[in-house]
Model the fold of this input.
Amino acid sequence: MPLDKEDENPRIPYQFAMPEDALPEIVIPNAIPEDDRMWVKQTENVYFRPLCLNVSQGYWVNLLKVTKSGVLSRHRHPNPVHGLVLKGRWHYLEHDWEATEGSYVFEPPGETHTLVVPDDVDEMITMFQVNGVMSYVDPYGKPMGYEDVFTKIDMCRKHFIEVGLGEDYVKQFIR
Ligand code: FE
Done:
């Protein structure tokens, strides 16, 4: 029994304002967009669709889309990552499991891995919440670059200018 006593008015909305300092919510009806301009190009055949770019807590939520089979960059996560596979499937060179359509994946802090989309998959889409940074590394852990919410915002801003939506378009995703 989660409630101390029964709610006598279950259909009456909360009667007060939200906290004055609370941020506005984000609602994105077509999270998997019909408009291709929503996909920000990351590298050849790799795109991301921003959903929430959180600058006060240092994380981002996005859809990752890979339109060709192959290997994505090897990277290390000092912070946790949550993933939900929406389309296609993929695996890591470092693990023997496969993330199939509908799978949820928790990547614990400390993971270093290399994402591979198998040959018979021509498109995969996965929602990722990435906390902190993604640090790109060579096979021996030597840093080769990084991404964080701020590099993501920069890429979005550039992209949205290029496709004619303007530099402010990214602001709707920033909290
Ligand atoms: Fe990862």
